[in-house]
Amino acid sequence: MSFKVLGLNIEVTPSSLAGSLLLVVIFTGLALASLQLSLIGALLWGVVAMLLYWISETLHQYGHFMAGRRVGYAMTGVRMWGVFGASVYPADEPTLPAATHIRRALGGAPVSIVIGIVVAVLALLLRDSLSAPVWGLLVLVAFLNFVYFGLGAFLPLGFTDGSTLLHYWNKA
What we know:
Elements lengths: L1 E4 L2 E5 L1 H21 L4 H33 L5 E5 L2 E5 L9 H8 L2 H19 L5 H19 L10 H9 L3
Parallel strand pairs: 2-3
Antiparallel strand pairs: 1-2, 3-4
Helix pairs in contact: 1-2, 2-3, 2-4, 2-5, 3-6, 4-5
C-alpha cells in the first residue's frame, strides 16, 4: 500500500503494519504502567502514540527529502518497514559524490531534534494545564524526536544515517 504525504510516496510494507501493532502494544503497556488509565483508555493512548510515532518518522524523512532537494538529488519516497523508515531514491540516480550523501544523511536528525526541543518546551510550559495522558503524549513525542529520531540517527547500525555518514566521511 502506498500514498503521498508532503510530496513523498510513502510505501507501507506488511512488516510496518506488524511494527505498528508492536508499537501499540508497547505504548499501551507504557500508558497502563504510568498513567493509571483503564485498558480502553490505555489502548486509545497507545494508538494515538503509534500514529504520532509514524508522523515523527515521516517528518524526519522529510528533512532528508529537503536536504536532497537542496543538493539537487531528492529522494522520491519512504519505505516503512518494521518500526523504521528508509529513504527511497530514484533507481536511475547517478553515482554521487560523498559530500552529497553526507548532506542528505544529515537532513533528518536536525528536523527531529528541533521538533523534540519545541515539543519538550511546550510540555513544560503547559504541564499544569494538561491532563496526564495529553502531557504524557507530549513527553513521548519530545523523547522520540530528540533521542530516537534525532540523536539515535547518528548510531552506525547498518541502516541508519550514522552508517551512511561513517561510510562516506573519509571519502568526502
